[in-house]
Each structure stands twice: as structure tokens, then as C-alpha cells.
């Protein structure tokens, strides 16, 4: 086997992040992934950072190892192509809008009627059964709705700041990957597929699990006052995050005994993160720094202040060396740009180089986890637009004449049909 999903065929009706990244993980794991793009190309192919016509960094980073077929799902002539693809699929992944899924008959009921063994992965913003199910949403919207934007605490000009770290998207993609793997395992025993649902809201909540606990009858009743009375009043007067957190802490003070030795500290020339989370590492930290350990329970804020003063006395490199020598988890706070050229990440295979037939050589994320017997591999680069349309149609039993007619009717686009024509305007212009 070349990977744990060797022999599995995935058909991806995906766009943006969640389904494409989940499908990329499946490709890393050995699956054959056929990406169905609209005839105008995946939206990320038209992103402004054009490296070559129809090729952008945003597309490269979540579509490697796939084959590309371009289909106009609104064209009635394309239905035969879609049915043929679905018929040979083990997995179908969809994150189009609910309305588009219904119109194109890409819902689970329609697809499972064609192929009862198919494992169907569907992604929504807010879920599938609640009162907000079906509403449109993307990472920034769901981060806001789920409280994650507030939890991450980044601000810019007094507003919560949403960065390129699309947490809800990527967590949901990984959850969907696990769900697909579980459903394929069940299929081995039952012979039947099933539907796997994931939502950005579920992903955003999962990553905040530490904060999601309300014990009835305990000391958590403060939350009703905060949520039911204080928050509405604060929002009515447009309070900023600092004001909101001040009110929350007055109702329920944080317990600094847990975070006094599990946090970031300034050094003489930088910042380090210390993770002395266990009693043993905490005790070693107290011993090596000489701070007053009894303060941890008596006055955690004073304990933390003492630690902060000690860490200011030496450089980052000195502290990292000494803390590691004592088996206390520590790391310098790095910039994400450094990760692409980090020797440790290179050795782990967490970054890898790829050769793209249009872009050339580029570096990106490698396989994010390891398996000893059936290893994951960051395989081929992402495909050029419609690169595999003609070959896939031939494999599905369409003759050369039928392929030519499908192209002429606008039901599909193939790279060969574009040889004498231009790319679709959005891909050509990157707008």
C-alpha cells in the first residue's frame, strides 16, 4: 500500500478551505482525489496573487496531489459526467451552498441512490438541524458567532482582529477527515456508506473546549448574570473587549495559580513560552529560578511578577538552553515566516518542496502527521486548471467524439480544449 487510503477514490465538489484541505489530507494518505471545478475555475485560482495564469498561493496550499476536471454543473449535459464520477467514488465531499447542492442533486439522498457504498462528507457553516442551519457563513463569521474571535483576543484599532489563521476552517477540515476515516472503517464491516456532517461552528467550539463547562448548582451561576444581564448592557453602550472582560472577571476572577507558570515571558532580548504545566515541572522551575514557591498559592500575581523579573535577566537563548536541560517545556516565540526554512520542520517533513508544471518549484506544508506502516506523503503539486478532464472522461467511457461535444456544449472544459483558446477571464486576470 502507498498509504492508508490506497485504492480509495474521492470526488471533491469543494471550494475555499474545509473540503479542499480535507481532500488534500486524503490525497496525502494515498487516496485518488478528483477535484471538480466550475468552468470558471476554483475561486482561489482567481485570487490576486497570480503566480501563473490560474495559479495562486491560496490554491497551491490546499489542492496538492489532486486531479482537476472542470464541469458546468448547471449544464444539463453535465449530468451524465457527474453520475459517472459519483458511480466510481468511494468518498464524495461537498461544501457548496445548500441551495446549490439541492439544485445540482448533489445531496446525500441523490448520490447514495446512485452509489449506496459512498461515504458522503458535507460541510456547513452552522450545522444541519438547528434554527440557524442553512445560513451562509465563512471562517470570520463563524469565529464571531462562536465566541472564538473574542477568545483569541487579538485586536486592531479596538476591533477583534481576524487573521490568516483560519482556525474554524482548518479544525473542521481535520474533524471531517476523521469522520471520513471512521465511515470508511464502518463500510468495511457493513458494506454501506453513510453521511458525515461537519460544521465550522462545531470546529470553532471544539477548539474552545477548555472554556465550555457549566456545572449546575456549583459556582458557575455567575454566568447567567453575565450572559443575561451584563453582556446586553455592555453591548448597548458599545463596550470594547477590555471593558467586557473586566466585568466578567469581577463576576468570576481568573485563577492565576494555573497560569502563573504556564505563559509567555519577556527575556533580555525576546519572548519565550514556558509550559511548566505539571507539578514536577513547576517545582523544577521554582528551584532553578529561585522564586518564592509559597507565593503560588498565597499570592499568584506576586509569584508571576517574580518569575517575570527573573526571566528579564538573561537572553532567550540562555533561558531556552537551561530550561530544556531541566526538561521544562519552553520555546522562543517565533514568526510564522520562519517556519518555511526551519531545519526541524524540514527533518520532520512538515514542510516540503514541490514542482508545479506552471509555477515551478515552491515550498509548502508537508504531511502533518506520520504513520509507520502506511506513511502519508506530500505527493504531487496541485493540478493546473482542467488538466485531467479529457483523461478522466475517457476513463469513464466517453469517446473522443463525446468529449469534444461536451466541450463544445460548454458542459465541461478540458486543458486540450483551451490550447487554442484563453483561460476563463477570472483565471486569466486574477480578479
Any overview of this molecule?
The strands form 5 sheets. A 7-stranded mixed β-sheet has the order 10-7-6-1-2-5-16, sandwiched between helices. Strands 11-12-13 form a 3-stranded antiparallel β-sheet, covered by helices on one side. The mean pLDDT is 93. The chain starts with 8 loop residues before the first strand and ends with a helix. By secondary structure, the protein is of the alpha/beta class. The protein has 19 helices and 16 strands. The radius of gyration is 26 Å and the shape is globular. α1 crosses α8 (167-190) and α10 (222-236) runs antiparallel to α11.
Distinctive features:
alpha/beta, 40% helix, 3-stranded antiparallel beta sheet, globular, 431 residues, 7-stranded mixed beta sheet
What topology emerges from the helices and strands here?
Elements: E1 9-13, H1 18-28, E2 32-37, E3 50-52, E4 55-56, H2 57-60, E5 66-71, H3 79-87, E6 91-94, H4 98-103, H5 108-114, E7 119-124, H6 139-146, H7 148-152, E8 155-156, E9 159-160, H8 167-190, E10 195-199, H9 200-206, H10 222-236, H11 241-251, E11 262-266, E12 271-275, H12 279-289, H13 295-298, H14 300-311, H15 316-325, E13 330-332, H16 343-348, E14 351-356, E15 360-365, H17 389-395, H18 400-408, E16 412-413, H19 425-429
Parallel strand pairs: 1-2, 1-6, 2-5, 6-7, 7-10
Antiparallel strand pairs: 3-4, 5-16, 8-9, 11-12, 12-13, 14-15
Helix pairs in contact: 1-8, 6-9, 8-9, 10-11
